[in-house]
Amino acid sequence: MRRYLSALILGAGGVAILMSLGIWQVRRLTWKEGVIAAIEARIGDEPVPLSGMTSPDPDDDLYRPVTVAGRTTGEEILVLSGQRELGPGFRVIAVFEAEDGRRILLDRGFIPESGRAIPRPGVQLSVTGNLLWPDDADRFTPPPDEKTGLWFARDVAAMSKSVKTLPVLVVVRTEEGNAQGIVPVPVDTSHIPNDHRNYAITWFSLAAVWAGMTAFLLWRIRQRKI
Questions:
Q1: pLDDT tens for residues 139-197?
Q2: Are 117 and 157 members of one domain?
Q3: Concatenated DSSP letters of the chain
Q4: Which of 3, 13, 20, 77 is most buried by a 10 A CB count?
Q5: 105 and 165: one domain?
Q6: What is the pLDDT of residue 1?
Q7: Under-70 pLDDT residues of the chain
Q8: Is residue 203 situated within a structural domain?
Q9: CA angle 68, 169, 129 (to 5 degrees)
Q10: Around 161, how many Cα atoms within 13 Å sit in the side-chain half-sphere?
């Protein structure tokens, strides 16, 4: 009886812990889906003129849709990137002089490797996009390559300092003007990880396996007694 009871306690305890972890992941999934839905709603809001915003804030204005007109200066930062359909290439972060006189960063989108050497002089553009302060960089991200000038992540603070603009980045959704072969990569929620469903399935599966192992252990104990 003691061996029975020990196995039963161990089995029930393990199943309870694994089930609770699975239930927690289900709750996290519900929370994350709510967060993503709120971000998607924010991304799709009616755009407001950037000229009417005194000082865009990374906390209050993240993902805010804006419109802005002005001219690129021909200065740009190329960030190593890739697109599934187009292969490896670069994100083009252009210096943009808005009609109100402010210099900002404009993420115009993607060019393939073959487009790197093509000149992109200043052009007049009217842009609809979203404000973004991406967290692409981490402590493992190398600094910009001094020889090639390539960047490996979008770091708004560092980029704006290097080309003397405001620390404001607008990611193009649509633009009127000469696209210069650049394919816009609009802001979306695909970069936000949401693996809680898979985690929940894993924990519930482990709970089922633990329960099966417990049942087998109890059967073995019973067989030995017989």
A1: 888 999 988 889 999 999 999 999 999 999 999 999 999 999 999 999 988 878 889 99
A2: yes
A3: -HHHHHHHHHHHHHHHHHHHHHHHHHHHHHHHHHHHHHHHHHHTSPPEEGGG-SS--TTTSTT-EEEEEEEEEEEEEEEEEEETTTEEEEEEEEEEEETTS-EEEEEEEEEEGGGTTS-----EEEEEEEE-------TTSPPPPTTT--BSS--HHHHHHHHT--S-EEEEEEEEE--TTPBP----STTS---HHHHHHHHHHHHHHHHHHHHHHHHHHHHHH-
A4: 77
A5: yes
A6: 67
A7: 1, 225-226
A8: yes
A9: 45
A10: 5
The confidence score (pLDDT) of residue 225 equals 62
Per the listing, tokens 């196995």 go with 7
Q: What is the pLDDT of residue 137?
A: 80
- Residue identified by tokens 């620390």 is 167
Tell me how many degrees the CA angle 91-93-98 measures, rounded to the nearest 5: 145
On whether both 77 and 123 belong to a single domain, the answer is yes
Give the amino acid at 26. Answer: V
Residue 183 maps to a domain: no
Q: What pLDDT is stored for residue 206 in this prediction?
A: 95
